[in-house]
Amino acid sequence: QFWREIADERSETRDDDTYCLLDGKRIVYDAGLYYRLPRGTDQATVKCVKDREVVVDVKVKGRSKTGFVTEWDRKGYTRTTYLDDRRHGEQKQVVDGRVKSLTMFEKDRVVWDKDYYPNGKLESYSRKFATGRARIELGEDGRVYSLDCIPQAGQDREFRELCGFEEPLTTKIYDGTGKVSHSSWGSSRPQS
To answer: Strand 19-22 vs strand 76-83: parallel, antiparallel, or unpaired?
Structure first.
């Protein structure tokens, strides 16, 4: 009922670049429409397009949403995927037109996350495994500044070489002054 009232209240639009579809009915663009719903709202589908790009595509039932939404701030946006109102899947943050971070969620818990420098190079990567977390931090020059390896990290291509799972390897860990502060030696086989 509420959805039909909203659709009737909002004027239809002929704008082909920026609009929303509320249960298939084209209305004026409002990317936050799904947030302002009263409790117990019927199921509905909200899809919003901004400048010809889909920025919201969710199915809403009550207060629960499944799909993805995009939220903006002054420098960029964050696109988050939800399943039953929990972050589930990829979350991408874009700042000044470049990917700043990617995070993978499973039922609202972080599985892995990556941060990037403005030039697009990897700044840090962290991944949760059953027995702990592996992490790497790199400088813009590609030097390793922090490295935490665990046996399960050998299953992840980002960690395989640096943690020494592909072949014996010495990884130099640099401090903030650019000097080697630690060396790490990897084994030739991942342990289980």
So the answer is: unpaired
Which residues are CB-neighbours of 184 under 8 A, at least 6 positions away? 147, 149, 163, 164, 170, 171, 173
State both tokens at 172.
Answer: 């130099």
Q: pTM of the prediction?
A: 0.80
Are the C-beta atoms of residues 174 and 139 closer than 8 Å to each other?
yes
* CA dist 59 → 43, 45, 66, 100 (Å): 7, 4, 5, 27
Phi, psi of 90 (to 5 degrees): -80, 140
Q: What is the pLDDT of residues 119-145, one digit of tens each?
A: 999 999 999 999 999 999 999 998 888
Q: Which two tokens stand for residue 88?
A: 């589930």
- Look at residue 112 and tell me whether its pLDDT is greater than 90: yes
